[in-house]
Specification:
Blueprint (H helix, E strand, L loop, with lengths): L13 H8 L3 H41 L1
Length: 66
């Protein structure tokens, strides 16, 4: 089996990527705001799903304690 090889290189900053793609500073800020909102909503959905999944267990514990 061949040995694995890892190639390392410095990761470009968002500004470097945007400059390479020709994206303006204003558009960078808009994209950044959209990405932050997307992750905020994703995290909120994840938290809502997790707490909803725990509800039946909470009800069972309350019922058995009563």
């Amino acid at each position: 089996m061949p040995k694995s090889v890892t190639i390392t290189t410095p990761w470009p900053t968002y500004e470097e990527v945007a400059k390479r793609l020709g994206i303006s500073k204003r558009r960078q800020k808009e994209i950044d705001a959209m990405a932050k909102e997307f992750f905020r909503q994703s995290r909120a959905k994840e938290c809502a799903t997790t707490s909803t999944a725990a509800e039946p267990e909470k009800r069972r514990k309350r019922a058995s304690a009563a």
